[in-house]
Please model this.
Amino acid sequence: MHKDATQEPGKSPQARNPPRKVLFTGLLSAAAIIAAAGGIVAAAALAPEPAGSRNLPVPLAAVPAGSSIGVCPGPARLLKGTEAGTDPQFSPESATARSAVSGAVISAPGGVLPASRLSALGGTTAVEIAKGDAQPGGDAGPQELKAGVIEQRAVDAATVLSADAREGKKPSAAALTKYSATDGDLQGTAAATCQQPSNDLWLAGGSTTLGRTSVLILSNASTTPATVSLELFGAKGQIQAPGSRGLLVAPGTTRSIVLAGLAPGEAQLSVHVRSAGGPVAAVIQQSVLRGLTPGGVDFISPGAAAAARQVLTGVDIQDAGALASLTRQKGYEDAGPALQLTVPGQSDAVVEIKLFGRDGQKALPGGGVVTAKAGAVTEVSLAGVPAGHYTLSATSDVSFVAAARVTRGLKDDSASDVAWASAGVRLGSQHVVPVPQGGQRILVFGALEDRATISYSAVTADGKIQAASSADIAGGTTTSIDIPEKVQESAVVGYIVSASGDAAYGALLLQQDGRDDVSTLALLPAASGQEKIPVTLGY
Model:
């Protein structure tokens, strides 16, 4: 008979522990072990950690709202003697050339205006808008807004609109420069919003081929020197240009750079401006001369930074048949509408383009999907699109920069004009839209997927904010609103625009009765209040 290997000698099987007792003893032992472990964990939790091993949350520091600063470009000037080099020589302006700044500063509720002024770039005050007194203006109610306005102030150089922060909030203020001429090589209209200086800017739409002139204008309104470096992108890729790095812009000065001296013969040219030290404002003065016929003038303003989605509105397209006849002629290949895509990264971008008009989405002749080459500028023709005002949406899985060419004029023996629509920001609350005097002024709004509601209130020259009107925009459509010359017998100098609902975008389109002038400006971001930023401590 087989003997149990666990049975001790001299003991019977009944003398061993019963199975239930063994199980109970094991459970008690396990519980004791777990309790002991728990005590160790609890003690460790209660004991202070070594200073070097603690995980502390990143602190957030409140940053007070700063002043509103907008740098306005000076008049467009005719270039001469620039066959070599990048430093410009300018000819005198034409006899009919006019440049003026228009703008508005909005008060806090109760009618208290922030201290604000229009100054020369060097700091000399030209117009004091408000002194920033603590008392409400006039008989303003507790929630009533007032405006300090600049109405068509003539200028002959770059200027700065500044408004001081009040009670921790950045003021709502905006201005624009409008240039116009009816004679000379720079016939047409060029307008640009006065921009917040930055250390990183993108400008798309330049050209340095025969008859096309692009002058990059850098302005430093700060008290710190700015050292600027340029990255240039053309149709064949990034351009390595000697002299594009380490460009010094002294405080309170403007520096002009002829882009043909850095990148000659480029039909499509985008410029990435990066500044170390003081932030700068930048525009490209772009003009076209087709033989002896003026082809337009424009200020190309910075658009949205490189992103996977770009939206442009205020894209005005003329009759497709007449444009086709014009652009078939030699020298007029760029006289029609087009979208330019710049991909700064190392991967090609497959971009889906959608065009939304008054009646909904319009099909693009090429199908609406293009591949934009990495490190280069790709142009997409908008030929064949029916005439009208449009909002353009472009999306990709790769970041890119976008701008759209807008043209006016259908006769090869008459002066025409050109403008570039830059990518804008989604509309929020209380965007200030300055409006210049004269000509046709049109607010253009576009909604993307779903319905959006736009509220817009006229700002008049007497400093009043008029009653708000609203526009209900269906998803995938574009709405245009003509701006009246006056409201209640006072000239309109601006608008306060707010949006709700789905994503909406806006632009100001400027044209001229009886002429083929055109300019289009994306609406500026709304003012922001106090922000908090993460602070990292280190050495």
Q: What stands out?
A: The chain is about 5% helix and 45% strand. The chain has one domain: 63-527. Helices lie at 19-46, 320-327.
